[in-house]
DNA sequence: CGACGGGTTGAGGAAACTCAACGCATGTGG
DNA sequence: CCACATGCGTTGAGTTTCCTCAACCCGTCG
C-alpha cells in the first residue's frame, strides 16, 4: 500500500466526489490533506472494530465490505466500485462496522475523518453530498435485501452478473475479481451452489470466464432468469 | 387519516427529532408547517412511485416499508418504530421508492419536503441530523442483510423477536401487529414456514401470543437459537 | 516434489417451499 | 337469523432447492 499527497484540483473524479459542488477557489482553501493510495488484491484498508480515523473514495478498482457472524460465517455486505465511498460511518461511530478488503488493484483517496467532520459542519454542500451518498448506499442495500429475500439462487446470480456488467459499460470483457467464496458470501449461498450455477451458465453459453475476466454472451437470457425482462417501460 | 396543525415546540419527541439541535428561538423562526397525523392499521401513507411531497416522523405506532417484485412477490424492506423517519428519500428522488403502510394505530408528523429541503440548506444542524438518520437506516439494513444471508429460518425469527422486544423496553406484553405474511415478507420465508416455527416456539414455551400481543417467556432460549451465544452445540 | 487454495462434480440429506385441506374468526347480504 | 364468502393461522404430504461432506483436478508456490 503506497501513498502520497494528492492534488484534488486535478483529480479526474473531482466532479463526482463529495467536493463536486465547490469551485476551484473553495477547494483550494479547504486545506484538506488528501492521501493518494494505491493497493492491490487482499490488502485490508481497515478491520471491523478498528477505530475510525480515515474515510476513503474509491477511484478505480473494487473493494468488499465484510462482516462476520459469531458462528464464523462471513457475509459481504456491499461491493464498492469506481466512485463509491467507504469508511464514512466513522463520522458517527468511533469504530468501523465492517472490514474493507481490496479485491482488485485499486486507487483510493484517503481523507482524515476529523478534518472532514469540521469541514462538513462549515460547508452545507459537502454535508449534502455526503448525505446523498448515504442514501445511495441505503438504496443499494435495500435492493440487495430484495434479492436475498425474494429470489432463488439462479435468479440472484443472474441479476448480480448483469448489475456487475453495468459498472463497466462499453466493455466486452469485464474485470471480475470475485472468487466463488466471494460470490457465495455476497449472495447468501454456499460456494458449491454458486459454482454449479456458474458452470450451468457456461454450459448454456450465457457467460464465459477466463483469468479474472467475465464476458456476458446472452444478457437477455440472464435477464429472463433474473425475473426481469429487458427494458420494458418503467412506469 | 385525520390531520391538524402541530406544535413542534411542545412535542414529546422534540429532543429526538431532526430539529433536536435547535433552540426554542430557532425552532420558532422556522415557520415550518408540520401536520399532525393520526392513522390506523392498513392506512397507506404513500405508494411506490408516488411523487414525493412529504416526509414523516413516526411518533407512536408501527409502519412497514414494502417493495414488490415483478413476479408479484412482496418484501418488507424495513419496519419503523417510534422515532423513525420515512419518506425522506424524496429529498433526492422525485418519487417514493417503496410503499409505506401502517401496521398499528400510529401518530406521525408530516413535513413538506420542499420546505425541508430549503431549511436543510440553511441549517447544517438539520442536515447533519438527517444524515445521521440515513446512517442508522443503513446500519439496520446491513444487519438485515446479514440475517438473510447467513442465518436459517429459526435463527432469523428468534433474532427478530428479540429485536422487536428491544423496541418496547419494560413492557412484559409487547404490541405485535405483524401477521404471518408480514413476518414472512420481512424474513424472506414462506408464511407456512413462519407459522410452523412460531407454533414450535409456543410449544417450547419460548413465547406466548394473544390478539396482537406477544410475550417473550424465554429470551435466553431464543438468544441461543439466534446464534448470539457463543457456540453451544445443538443436540 | 508436496502442500495448498480455488474450482468442479457427485451423492445424500436437511431445509424450505408448494399445494391442499381445515378451523376459526369476521363480515356481508338475503 | 342464517348462509356464505373471506382472510388468517395451522397442519400435513410431497417436492424442490439448497447445503454438507467428500473426492478430485489444476495451477501456484515453497
Description:
The structure is a homodimer of 235-residue chains. By secondary structure, chain A is α+β, with helices and mostly antiparallel strands. The first copy, chain A, has 2 domains: 2-140, Jelly Rolls (Sandwich), CATH 2.60.120; 151-226, Winged helix-like DNA-binding domain superfamily/Winged helix DNA-binding domain (Arc Repressor Mutant, subunit A). Helices cover 37% and strands 26% of the residues of chain A. In chain A, the strands form 2 sheets. In chain A, strands 1, 2, 3, 4, 5, 6 and 7 form a 7-stranded antiparallel β-sheet that branches. In chain A, strand 4 (54-68) and strand 5 form a beta hairpin. In chain A, helix 2 (113-122) packs across helix 3. Chain A is globular. Chain A starts with a strand and ends in a 9-residue tail after the last helix. Chain A binds a DNA duplex (30 and 30 nucleotides) through residues 152-153, 179-181, 189-193, 195-196, 198-199.
Which terms summarize this structure?
homodimer; alpha+beta; Jelly Rolls; Arc Repressor Mutant, subunit A; globular; DNA-binding; Crp/Fnr family transcriptional regulator (chains A, B)
Amino acid at each position: 500500500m503506497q501513498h502520497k499527497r494528492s492534488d484534488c484540483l486535478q483529480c479526474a473524479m473531482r466532479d463526482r466526489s463529495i467536493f463536486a459542488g465547490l469551485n476551484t477557489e473553495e477547494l483550494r482553501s479547504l486545506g484538506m490533506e488528501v492521501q493518494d493510495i494505491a493497493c492491490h488484491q487482499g490488502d485490508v484498508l481497515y478491520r471491523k472494530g478498528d477505530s475510525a480515523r480515515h474515510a476513503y473514495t474509491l477511484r478505480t478498482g473494487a473493494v468488499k465490505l465484510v462482516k462476520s457472524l459469531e458462528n464464523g460465517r462471513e457475509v459481504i455486505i456491499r461491493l464498492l466500485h469506481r466512485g463509491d465511498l467507504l469508511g464514512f460511518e466513522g463520522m458517527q461511530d468511533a469504530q468501523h462496522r465492517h472490514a474493507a478488503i481490496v479485491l482488485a488493484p485499486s486507487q483510493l483517496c484517503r481523507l482524515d475523518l476529523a478534518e472532514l467532520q469540521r469541514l462538513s459542519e462549515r460547508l452545507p454542500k459537502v454535508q449534502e453530498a455526503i448525505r446523498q451518498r448515504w442514501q445511495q448506499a441505503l438504496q443499494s442495500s435495500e435492493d440487495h435485501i430484495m434479492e436475498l429475500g425474494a429470489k432463488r439462487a439462479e435468479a440472484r446470480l443472474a441479476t448480480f452478473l448483469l448489475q456487475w456488467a453495468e459498472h463497466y459499460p462499453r466493455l466486452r470483457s469485464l474485470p471480475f475479481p470475485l472468487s466463488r467464496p466471494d460470490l457465495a458470501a455476497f449472495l447468501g449461498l454456499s460456494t458449491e451452489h454458486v459454482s454449479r450455477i456458474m458452470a450451468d451458465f457456461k454450459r448454456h453459453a450465457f457467460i464465459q470466464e477466463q483469468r479474472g475476466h467475465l464476458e456476458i454472451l446472452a444478457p437477455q437470457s440472464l435477464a429472463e432468469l433474473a425475473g426481469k425482462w429487458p427494458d420494458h417501460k418503467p412506469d
